[in-house]
């Protein structure tokens, strides 16, 4: 292989731009004995790839599956008991005590609503009695505005009279 071509392929290889065929050419070049001295440091890299392709794993891997079946059945039983514990009380419907508690709660709610209704009526009547005070307040504000105009008139009159004296 031409040295110039090998250097171009190495540059492409370092930039991750080579194809599989070009990489095969590089492996073949570096596995041969005719490698340029300034490219010797690439030789172990490509020889490593060739050696590792031939390696095989021959050791047996033991698999233990008998213990897991016991744990699987225990987990299934636990889930079943949990589901039954949730479902059975709901299937039987409300008990007599629960019905009594609901009736008592409803009666308490109705009494509370009646009491709040009476309080609301009392507040509304008190609010209606405050309406005349609002009218008086409005009249008071009108009088205050008139008094402020009168004060301004007095100030202007005093200025006119003082300048004429």
How are the elements arranged and paired?
Elements: H1 3-14, H2 20-31, H3 43-54, H4 66-92, H5 96-129, H6 131-164
Structural class from helices and strands?
Answer: mainly alpha
Multimer state: single chain
Helix and strand run: HHHHHH
The overall pLDDT average reads 80
Largest sheet: none
Work out the count of structural domains: 2
Number of separate strands? 0
Helix content: over 70%
Q: Can you tell me the overall shape?
A: elongated
Q: Specify the number of helices.
A: 6
Distance between the termini: 128 Å
Q: Strand fraction band? A: under 5%
Low-confidence stretches: none
- Computed over alpha carbons, the radius of gyration is 51 Å
Overall description:
This protein has two domains: 52 residues, no CATH class; 64 residues. It is elongated and about 125 Å long. The protein contains six helices and no strands. It is 79% helix and 0% strand. Helix 1 crosses helix 2 and helix 2 crosses helix 3. The longest helix is centred in the last third of the chain and has 34 residues. It has 165 residues and is an all-alpha fold.
